[in-house]
């Protein structure tokens, strides 16, 4: 099966998504111009997206003629257009207003976005059905049927209704707000209670995934709203337990706990420098094997340290523009070297 033309279109769309984001971010915080703007414009003028799209359709039809199996075509599309699952970090379709407000190369960036969005949507129409009863999009069915009728005028596409398997056995539904409230009554501090509620929300989301109760769109997985009442009740329950910041340590029946709170005392730019190094070194992964996004990880750290980092991209640019590109990381490395040196000195003194 041929994949070359489809993947080529995928690669060009992904590339220009990333380029659009790069130009916008580089000029968003006061930069007068993007250094390689002339080169970027010249490269964009050389790309014929209409031809790329037509080549992809021709390749799809050739594969239909050769294999004559719509399920194979569905897998061909899934394997070719990974941009729908990975996307381009930071690229959004609704940023035209931000480009205009930024005031840098407005006409060019709007033209790039218009072109990308047009062909992105055309491919998306072929790839996704948005129909619980059938895996294949109406557009894929149309293309497949027209090509097959050229080969066999009597061809009729027969697709059995497909109903996604879902475990809707309410007897096995383990989440009940009244049971949770009884658990909360056994805990001593508000912080413990809030932690337990958050844990139950995580348990609930994992339960939905395990029971095939997750709906996916082209980029992001979203929890099926059919059972979301439990999560809503959990968020309301949280309002009962305000945390003052200096909660006394108490002992609850059958359980001892010591509540401690930590805060980040270095600068926000220092935090971004450390966070960026950790994220891009892939030192941290999700336990469940899912892809870890930058947004998820930074939210996790902000929750731990009680931080609210605003203007993250601006601080990232500021960190990169410092005279020493990594002064905070260099300081940490030096602190570790000092610790090792001091430890060795004390060990030698004891001999």
Describe the structure using short key phrases.
single chain; 351 residues; mainly alpha; two-stranded antiparallel ribbon; two-stranded antiparallel sheet; 15 helices; 4 strands; 3% strand
Description of the structure:
The protein is an all-alpha fold. Helix content is 60%, strand content 3%. The chain has helices at residues 4-27, 37-45, 49-67, 70-80, 83-86, 96-102, 106-127, 138-151, 177-185, 190-210, 229-238, 268-280, 294-305, 312-321, 327-350; strands spanning 214-216, 221-223, 251-252, 255-256. The strands form 2 sheets. A two-stranded antiparallel ribbon has the order 1-2. Helix 10 (190-210) runs antiparallel to helix 11. The protein is extended and about 90 Å long.
Strand order of the largest sheet: 1-2
Which stretches are poorly predicted, pLDDT < 50 over at least 5 residues? Answer: 161-171, 215-226, 247-259
Q: Mean pLDDT, as a whole number?
A: 77
Count the beta strands. Answer: 4
Succession of helices and strands = HHHHHHHHHHEEHEEHHHH
Structural class computed from helices and strand pairing: mainly alpha
The number of distinct structural domains comes to: 3
- Proportion of residues in helical segments: 55-70%
- Proportion of β residues? under 5%
Distance, first to last CA: 72 Å
Oligomer classification: single chain
Number of helices: 15
Largest sheet: 2 strands, antiparallel
């Amino acid at each position: 099966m041929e994949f070359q033309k489809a993947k080529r279109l995928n690669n060009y769309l992904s590339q220009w998504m990333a380029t659009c984001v790069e130009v916008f971010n580089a000029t968003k915080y006061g930069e007068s111009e993007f250094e390689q703007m002339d080169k970027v414009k010249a490269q964009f003028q050389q790309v014929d997206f209409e031809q790329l799209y037509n080549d992809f359709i021709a390749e799809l039809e050739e594969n239909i003629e050769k294999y004559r199996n719509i399920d194979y075509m569905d897998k061909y599309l899934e394997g070719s257009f990974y941009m729908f699952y990975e996307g381009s970090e930071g690229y959004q379709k609704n940023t035209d207003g931000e480009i205009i407000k930024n005031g840098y190369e407005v006409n060019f960036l709007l033209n790039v976005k218009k072109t990308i969005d047009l062909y992105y949507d055309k491919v998306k129409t072929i790839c996704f059905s948005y129909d619980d009863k059938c895996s294949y999009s109406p557009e894929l069915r149309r293309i497949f049927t027209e090509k097959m009728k050229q080969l066999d005028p009597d061809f009729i596409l027969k697709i059995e209704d497909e109903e996604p398997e879902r475990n809707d056995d309410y007897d096995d539904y383990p989440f009940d707000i009244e049971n949770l409230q009884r658990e909360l009554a056994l805990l001593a501090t508000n912080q413990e209670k809030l932690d337990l509620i958050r844990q139950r929300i995580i348990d609930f989301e994992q339960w939905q995934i395990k029971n095939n109760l997750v709906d996916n769109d082209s980029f992001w997985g979203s929890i099926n709203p059919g059972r979301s009442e439990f999560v809503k009740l959990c968020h309301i329950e949280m309002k009962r337990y305000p945390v003052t910041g200096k909660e006394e340590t108490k002992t609850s029946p059958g359980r001892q706990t010591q509540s401690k709170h930590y805060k980040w005392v270095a600068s926000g730019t220092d935090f971004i420098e450390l966070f960026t190094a950790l994220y891009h070194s892939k030192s941290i992964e999700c336990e469940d094997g899912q892809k870890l996004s930058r947004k998820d990880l930074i939210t996790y750290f902000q929750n731990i340290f009680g931080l609210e980092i605003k203007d993250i991209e601006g601080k990232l640019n500021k960190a990169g523009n410092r005279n020493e590109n990594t002064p905070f990381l260099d300081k940490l490395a030096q602190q570790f070297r000092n610790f090792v040196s001091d430890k060795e000195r004390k060990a030698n003194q004891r001999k």
